[in-house]
Write a structure and sequence with these properties.
Blueprint (H helix, E strand, L loop, with lengths): L1 H38 L5 H13 L7 E6 L9 E7 L4 E8 L5 E9 L5 H10 L1
Antiparallel strand pairs: 1-2, 2-3, 3-4
Helix pairs in contact: 1-2
């Protein structure tokens, strides 16, 4: 019974910290994405490349990677945009937004899945 209490206590202590860190990384990631979006003329792989370059210049201990998909390639067409951010530990952030002169993120959902195997990590690296 003591072990169960200890595990419960540790969960209560460390879970909020994990959530706070996830929010910090989410905010940072979306800020970097907005910077890259504003600097780009079109919505294409240059945004993903820019994001990953910026991410390499700051601490990224969770090794996040990004994928951006848009229904239109020109900002003036005001298409829908989908952002998928994932790391090898299973943390996933999925956001949908509207592309225009400025990127508008309408909603995000985060989830923690199973940690990825080395083979899955390689397939994700090829995807991005």
């Amino acid at each position: 019974m003591r072990i169960a209490r200890l595990i419960y206590f540790l969960f209560l202590v460390f879970y909020p910290w994990q959530s706070a860190m996830a929010d910090q990384y989410t905010d940072t990631a979306l800020s970097l994405l907005s910077q890259c979006y504003d600097a780009s003329e079109e919505i294409n792989s240059n945004i993903t490349h820019c994001f990953n370059e910026k991410l390499n210049k700051i601490p990224n201990p969770l090794n996040y990677k990004i994928s951006v998909h848009a229904t239109k390639t020109k900002k003036s067409d005001h298409g829908k945009i989908t952002v998928f951010i994932i790391n090898a530990k299973g943390a996933m952030l999925y956001c949908v937004g509207t592309a225009g002169e400025k990127l508008k993120i309408n909603a995000c959902a985060a989830d923690i899945g199973k940690p990825l195997t080395p083979e899955q990590e390689l397939s994700i690296e090829g995807f991005f």
